[in-house]
Design brief:
Strand content: 15-25%
Number of strands: 7
Distance between the termini: 11 Å
Shape: globular
Structural class: alpha/beta
Number of helices: 8
Strand order of the largest sheet: 4-3-2-1-5-6-7
Largest sheet: 7 strands, parallel
Length: 179
């Protein structure tokens, strides 16, 4: 994998562990010469992640809709910043630029992006690996929901296996890369 798309919160969350995880993942991406592709924001975990990669000498590509640029939340110090017309275009551009996907803690936007990329994989629109960095058990309830959906016949077991979850960023990236 040469590039990784990371979905994460535009807020920092209440636990220091979330920002610590963003810094850890960012450092790891730079060390492994992997390009970060993310939502282009200069706030929350998104800012922590991007600034960590940049500070470590890595490459960061942001993709942000014009409406968010107009609200002055775009990160202006990135390697590249793509301004697109809509959230739909943002997700497509991020997918096009990435070899895999990881979600850090976040809210509705993070959940939306993660669900859509998983749906695209389920439909065969891509075959790129998808993962969750389960910081401090943040995604445990969501993973339980997915397992419940399997038990109830709404998600096939092979589809559930498309999503890899791990609490360790290095191990997660290795698993996504099939190492």
């Amino acid at each position: 994998m040469k590039s990784l798309c990371v979905f994460c919160g535009s807020s920092p969350g209440i636990r220091p562990a979330y920002a610590d995880a963003a810094r850890g993942l960012g450092t790891l991406l730079a060390e492994r010469n992997m390009t970060l592709v993310y939502g282009g924001s200069a706030s929350g975990l998104m800012l922590v992640l991007a600034d960590t990669v940049l500070a470590a000498g890595g490459t960061v590509i942001g993709v942000i809709p014009r409406a968010l640029v107009d609200r002055e939340i775009a990160h202006t110090g990135l390697t590249e910043l793509h301004v697109v017309g809509s959230m739909h275009e943002r997700k497509q551009k991020m997918a096009d630029l990435s070899d895999g996907f990881v979600a850090l803690p976040g809210g509705f936007g993070t959940l939306d992006e993660t669900a859509e990329i998983l749906t695209w994989r389920q439909l065969g629109l891509h075959d790129k690996p998808c993962g969750l960095l389960d910081v401090a058990g943040f995604f445990t309830p969501l993973l339980r929901f997915f397992d419940h959906a399997v038990d109830e016949g709404f998600i096939a077991v092979k589809q559930r296996r498309m999503l890899i979850a791990d609490g360790d960023p290095a191990r997660l990236i290795d698993r996504l890369a099939g190492v």
